[in-house]
Write a structure and sequence with these properties.
By secondary structure, the protein is an alpha+beta fold. It contains three helices and three strands, in the order H-E-E-H-E-H. Strands 2-1-3 form a three-stranded antiparallel β-sheet. A hairpin with a 3-residue loop joins strand 1 and strand 2. The longest helix is centred in the first third of the chain and has 20 residues. It starts with a helix and ends in a 17-residue tail after the last helix.
Length: 93
């Protein structure tokens, strides 16, 4: 029994660094469509977990809710801004 306990301890010590280094950080996903509905005394519930408006509308039928575009998704996208070209003027005095 001692032999198996020692083998288990050795194996777990060798495997622990591999498990720690293989963990990737979590990434938040923003979906483009949200569902809003009233749930009892809780009040208004907002669930932004739909990829298409049709998916949201199918879920909203049973909850008597409404679907709308996720404003966080719209403003979370990087916007390309064209900056004016900085002109250099040569002055010969």
């Amino acid at each position: 029994m001692k032999k198996y306990a020692l083998m288990f301890a050795t194996t777990s010590l060798l495997a622990a660094p591999a498990l720690v280094t293989s963990v990737t950080p979590a990434e938040a996903i923003q979906y483009p469509v949200c569902l809003s509905y009233v749930e009892g005394w809780s009040g208004i519930v907002e669930r932004c977990e739909y990829s298409t408006m049709q998916q949201c509308q199918m879920s909203a039928q049973g909850l008597n809710g409404s679907c709308y575009d996720n404003w966080r998704y719209a403003y979370g996208q990087p916007v390309q801004v064209e900056r004016p070209v900085k002109r250099r003027y040569r002055h010969d005095y």
